[in-house]
Amino acid sequence: MESCYFTVTKPSSSSSTILNFQGVSSFGGRSSQKSLGAPSYLSWPLSRPEKKHQNFVYRQKTFKGAILAEAGKQGWDFGRFIKTLYFFNGPPSPAKFFESLIEKLTGPSPSKPVNSMDSSGITLVTGATGGVGRRVVDVLRNKKLSVRVLVRNEEKARRMLGEDVDLALITAEKPHYALQLTLPVVGDVTKASTLLPEYFKGVTSVINAVSVIVGPKEGDTPDREKYSQGIKFFEPEIKGDSPEMVEYIGMKNLINAVKENVGLRTGKLLFGYEGNSFKELPWGALDDVVMGGVSQSTFQIDLTGGENGGPTGLFKGIVTTANNGGFASIRTKNFSEPEDLSAYDGLELRLKGDGRRYKLIVRTSSDWDTVGYTSIFDTVEGWQSVRLPFSSLRPIFRARTVLDASPFDPSQITSLQLMFSKFESDGKLNPTFKEGPFELPVSCIRAYLKDPITPRFVHVSSAGVTRPERPGIDLSKQPPAVRLNKELGFILTFKLKGEDEIRESGIPYTIVRPCALTEEPAGADLIFDQGDNITGKISREEVARICVAALKSPYACDKTFEVKSVIPFSEPYTVDPENPPPEKDYNEYFKTLKDGITGKESLEKTPISV
């Protein structure tokens, strides 16, 4: 049987510069081709070049190549088939083969114990043994929401929160996982080296109630009753780590630890160009050669073919139905670690369409031949963004819907695939399919957050953070923390710096600045304000409810605000258990908030060294 070698040449007017990926189009022994400053070209070796060639016309384009002199059939390249398998699966392994064979003969392996750290959609509560933090945990539990806590003292956490709480305890000592909620993982936000990524697996939102510890100089009870009551004044001092370590450095460490999990406003780049940086993926051709066809494709980097003359990825090839084929695709090798995109809502492709219909296939298993979660999308001519929600992905195996497939798990993404095919699924055909050459420039693929975006990081700060050195302020009328900012290690100064870290992180956030915290019950009418001007008191229970409500409200996203109750300091607030106040709709308060108001505006008018 003779085999063939195609060379496709664009018109000489084209001046695009093409850079082939190493190993992607290496099926004929040519591993990495570079054509810099020359006309674009693409070579598809089917096995090895032959001396005898003949011309043939294909869709009004002339190609030169050797073809099989057999009526109605083209030569299938077994060598390219083997190299395709090799690229994606690595060298053949007899041990893996027999292991796979035994698994298929004996049936599925028994299910493994579930690690509580691996579940998705978890809200992480930091500072969970504090006055606000433990109440946040209670509110989340009462709403049947998944919660994990980050604390430093396991004994204290168990005593306050119960034995069944999912603990992520952090110290500098050797960490270990918590299975079945009994063996805690241990750690500390002031020590970045202890915040290992696996501790935050499945976390999609954070409520941060970590705060430097302040207590009366004269001492306090074991449960900090003097400090917690919030009404009577005691001369304060810092206990334990400094405000700089907790409020500023600790905040930076925490943000760095969770931002890959909770999601960024601009999304997460998986492939392509972002500014001057490039995120690469190992793409390889996966065409109908695996089923006897002769379609061909490759993936390249076109250094000048993108928008505004910039670089772009380029999925291109020739598709034909010869030998009962009809599809061409590119697929990534399995990621070294599954990509966790559980904080996001889908994948967005920036591409230059050609009016055809394509498929994106996402896999959540490292197995070679397995279900692919598939979304079909149409393109129009020109550059466009195509958003494919995870909810649109359907489980497909060999062009058939798998009705009993497991739900798509965005925390376990192992590979991506782009395909142009004659076939859709379940017997349907692609109405835009045409045999012949095709090109699909793809400049980037990213995970995205759908609109309206809700907060992913809710932080409990403090009213007064912008006031210590505000021009013209009467300190005698300010709370103790403002008057004693310097004596308390610049506590409010570093709280403000911590806030700034959140605002600059790219994580959708809410910053709650409560006035003086009390042990009174929730239920009083509230005042929300912005600009850092109000004083007063508010229940810790109320603050906890506000934090949890903020996670679900787009009106709270990227807002900073102060909050207090309408009850004066001099009046205690109580609730009749037989006639409790109605639950609040905190959205009505959030709707009044405006973007960009932090109280720093007054500082920026008169620059002050902080």
UniProtKB/TrEMBL annotation:
- InterPro entries linked: Galactose-bd-like_sf, NAD(P)-bd_dom, NAD(P)-bd_dom_sf, NADH-UbQ_OxRdtase-assoc_prot30
Q: Where is the NAD(P)-binding domain?
A: 455-554
Residue ranges occupied by any NADH:ubiquinone oxidoreductase intermediate-associated protein domain in the UniProt entry: 282-442
- The highest taxon in the source lineage is Eukaryota
The protein here is known as NAD(P)-binding Rossmann-fold superfamily protein
Upper taxonomic lineage: Eukaryota, Viridiplantae, Streptophyta, Embryophyta, Tracheophyta
